[in-house]
Structure formats: C-alpha cells, structure tokens
Amino acid sequence: MNRPDGLLSPEIRLTAGVEYRRGGTYSWKLDIAVPAKRIRRPTPALVLVHGGGWCSCDKTSGMEIELIRRFAHEGYVALSVNYRLSQDARFPAQIEDVKCAIRWLRAHARRHGVDPNAIGAVGSSAGGHLVELLGLTTRADGLEGDGPYQGQSSAVQAVVSFCGPSDMTVFVRAMQAGGASAVRQLLAGPPGTLPERARAASPVTYVSRQAPPMLLIHGDRDETVPVTQSKALAAELRRAGARDVTLVVVKGAPHGVYGFALEKNVARMTAFFERTLVGRTRKR
To answer: Active-site residue 141, yes or no?
Structure first.
C-alpha cells in the first residue's frame, strides 16, 4: 500500500515516493523514514531492497515497510527502494537501479543528516541477492548503469541477506531441466551466453577480502533457494580472507525465514548494525 507523507509514529517521519531517478515509465522511487529526534548526527542509514523473484512486490511490501519503521525507531535513517522488475528489464538493470539509489542517498546525505560512510543494506530472497551484489561489486565490475550521481560511490559498509541466491549458475542447471522460471526471466537472452550472464549475476563471483561485514540468514528447510547457497557464499568469503562474515542457519525455517523467527532476526540485525555502522560513526 502507498502511504502519503506523514508520521508512522510520533517519533518517525516518512516521505513516500521520492524519485531517485527520472525518465521513462519505470518506478525509480524510494520511501525514506527519518527519526524525528536524532540520537546521533550524522546518522547511519539502512537501505531495504524488496524480494519477489525480481518480478513482483515493491518498496511497500510487508517486510520493507515494517523494517523502515523499526529501524527509524532505533535511530537510523531508513529507506525502501523500488527497482526495475525483470518483465520490464533483464539483469543487470535491477542492481544498476539499487546502486543508483545508494548514489542518490550519498548525494543527498547532508540534507537528510546521513553519515555517507555508514550505509547498510538489507534484502530477502531476490532482495538478498541484490544486496549481496551491492556489497561485493565495485565500479570496476561494470554494474553502475547509466543512472545519475555517477560522482558518488554505490558502496555499502554492511549487508544483511535473508535467503539470497548467491550462485546463479546452479539455477541455470535447473532452468535447463525446465524449472527456475524467475531466473529464466531475469537472465533472458541468447542461450549461448547464458553461463556467462549467470556468472555475472552471481554474488559469489565477486568475493574478495575487501567485502564489507555480511550477515547471512537462511532457513534449512528452504525449498526455493537452498541453504547451500548461503553456506557456499560464506565459505568463499572466508576463503578469500573476508574478516567479518556471519552465517546463521535457522532450523525448521522455510524460504520465509525473516518472518519465521521475526524477533530473533530483528535482534540479530540490530546488534549487527550497531556493531558495524553505529560503531563506525562513533569512532570518527
């Protein structure tokens, strides 16, 4: 549901439908929630990226609007962003849009009282895939796109991914067997270059010791994105020398792992961002 500008609570102010890019017929918009009274200034920011198989849902989905409220209440500037869906544009349009939103945030950091050196990202499922890419890719990887604010960095300093697909080549094999329709639409193109496109869309391709702190949360009963995806990403990050990688496997949880253990997951994220983002702001 769309919400007009107004108060989510007496402590939080929401501005909905802010354009982070203009042009075309796409919904390049975000919602931003700001604490009415700042605990600290400049303020760490969190960017929420929705799931939905890259082809459905938007920035006002349940998890995103709930997390905006929760995190703004905790003192963060919190954003939920839209991006082009796969029926409108194939990969890498989705990550290009999310990166553009991060650049917009840095370009407007002073206006919103945001610490440009303390930005985190959260996503689930397809959103988890995109925030993993956001954390692991650099400008040299060629995924910035043609959006505005190119003078700004799209880097984030911490990532939380719920059940994110990290190795798209695994799903290519499922596609060849007639499955994985969401991935087929995302990676649409000539069959001969599919393996190359799948590799380019895989967060695991970009692991390095420079990876930001990452918290990966996955259910061991996930039949949509197997838990082996997060396990493999965590293993590759550690092998590359990344210094801050946490994998949490939630027993009995299906693909909807975020809601399966809601309060525990919120507590995990709160502690993680307190350590990785708020800690950065306090040290400067």
So the answer is: no
